[in-house]
């Protein structure tokens, strides 16, 4: 058992036994008292317990000492000439220091109102004179536990802030890369509208993020021969965008020798292959690549501009909409399976006859599966109604811009653009 001997000196009972309490974060203690004797008694006890102790005889002197190197703990008398302990506490808390210090006021005041004033001034604890060493050590130990937790929390916050800064730098780098990727993806659609004789093809591509998984395009290997397509790759983001870049190379509008939809004949010209053969070739290429889980839906069509005869293949993509000159409209196709989902799939060709003034609209499910503000989705009936309303206005790119604007007006503000939106409009105006 620890033996203690002690005596009372000027209101402080000096203990001569060593303490086994852990004072943790408290290493440096500041004693502020105008009484030299009181300071000497407190300093003796604190040094015996292992603290580095500094002392000041007034609040003004103490503030100067704390401005550059604040202590871990302050023990300050309440009643002092000049700046009181209460005023010193307020000024001490106002110092611009990075670390928090524990503040104990020493006072003979025990009224609740006085205690409340001290707490409002920034004090953490009180000790009522006359002081007893056991209580002083216990209060210091309690303060040490609080400082330990506070500094541990500060260190964790510092680590979190550093991690957030690293994440911000990484995010900015990724964002920059995505902006560049978007420019590359936009280069896959170099022109949004083009005349082919009297007829015209217009394209719309609106990704829901920086980059998307939709792709539209057109190409013509010669006069009166035209091919165009609408593709929607599964998923979103970078992986889908990489797949669209790959497909853009397969269906290049400038490098016919790389375009799987064309075949060079007699070393003189390129011919458009049947749409179902193109879908079969793309399916075989995707299935041959191990580890590729993405697939895509597609409508690919070719048209003979001399007579308006159109052939197309629908591979899991939404049904194309034909808007006739007489104001009627009909959906084409039987659905079919997506490209790259299963091996040895057969794709069926669909044919139709276009008359001068007819329009064909290819679109992604970003239109039909758009969530509406009033609930539900736009679906095919809503798309047909919207397209016929737009058909009463200008054609070409203006038609597609009007379609997209109308879509943004009816979509749910909570969901917004949940998917990429794309479309192709072919307007046939005769040979």
Based on the model shown, name its key terms.
10 helices, 6-stranded antiparallel β-sheet, 431 residues, 5-stranded parallel β-sheet, 36% helix, alpha+beta, 26% strand
Tell me what the structure shows.
The protein is of the alpha+beta class. Helices cover 36% and strands 26% of the residues. It contains ten helices and 21 strands. The strands form five sheets. A six-stranded antiparallel sheet has the order 9-10-21-20-17-18. A five-stranded parallel sheet has the order 4-3-5-6-7, with helices on both faces. A hairpin with a 2-residue loop joins strand 11 and strand 12. The N terminus is likely disordered.
Q: Got a strand count?
A: 21
What fraction of residues sit in β-strands?
25-35%
Radius of gyration: 40 Å
**Strand arrangement, major sheet:** 9-10-21-20-17-18
Helix fraction, binned, reads 25-40%
Produce a short descriptive summary.
It contains ten helices and 21 strands. It is an alpha+beta fold.
């Amino acid at each position: 058992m620890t033996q203690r001997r002690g005596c009372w000196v000027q209101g402080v009972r000096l203990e001569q036994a060593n303490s086994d309490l852990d004072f943790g974060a408290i290493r440096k203690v500041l004693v502020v008292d105008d009484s030299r004797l009181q300071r000497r008694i407190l300093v003796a006890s604190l040094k015996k317990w292992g603290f580095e102790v500094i002392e000041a005889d007034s609040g003004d002197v103490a503030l100067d000492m704390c401005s550059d190197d604040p202590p871990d703990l302050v023990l300050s008398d309440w009643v002092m000439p000049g700046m009181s302990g209460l005023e010193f506490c307020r000024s001490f808390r106002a110092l611009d220091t990075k670390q928090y210090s524990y503040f104990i006021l020493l006072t003979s005041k025990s009224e609740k109102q006085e205690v409340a004033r001290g707490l409002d001034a920034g004090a953490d604890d009180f000790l009522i004179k006359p002081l007893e060493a056991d209580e002083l050590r216990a209060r210091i130990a309690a303060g040490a536990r609080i400082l330990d937790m506070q500094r541990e929390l500060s260190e964790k916050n510092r680590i979190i802030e550093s991690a957030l800064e690293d994440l911000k730098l990484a995010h900015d780098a990724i964002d920059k890369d995505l902006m560049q990727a978007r420019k590359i993806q936009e280069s896959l659609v170099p022109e949004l509208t083009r005349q082919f004789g009297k007829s015209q093809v217009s394209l719309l591509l609106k990704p829901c993020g920086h980059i998307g998984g939709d792709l539209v395009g057109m190409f013509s290997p010669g006069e009166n021969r035209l091919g165009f397509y609408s593709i929607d790759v599964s998923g979103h983001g970078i992986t889908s965008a990489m797949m669209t870049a790959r497909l853009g190379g397969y269906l290049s509008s400038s490098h016919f020798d790389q375009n799987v939809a064309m075949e060079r004949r007699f070393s003189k010209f390129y011919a458009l292959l049947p749409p179902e053969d193109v879908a079969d070739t793309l399916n075989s290429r995707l299935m041959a690549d191990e580890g590729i889980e993405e697939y895509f839906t597609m409508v690919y069509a070719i048209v003979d501009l001399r007579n308006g005869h159109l052939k197309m293949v629908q591979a899991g993509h939404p049904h194309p909409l034909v808007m006739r000159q007489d104001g009627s409209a009909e959906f084409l196709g039987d659905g079919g399976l997506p490209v790259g989902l299963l091996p040895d799939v057969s794709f069926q060709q669909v044919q139709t006859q276009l008359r001068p003034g007819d329009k064909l609209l290819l679109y992604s499910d970003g239109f039909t599966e758009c969530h509406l503000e009033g609930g539900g989705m736009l679906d095919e009936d809503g798309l047909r109604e919207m397209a016929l309303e737009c058909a009463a206005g200008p054609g070409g790119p203006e038609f597609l811009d009007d379609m997209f604007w109308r879509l943004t007006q009816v979509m749910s503000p909570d969901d917004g653009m949940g998917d990429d939106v794309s479309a192709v409009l072919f307007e046939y105006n005769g040979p």
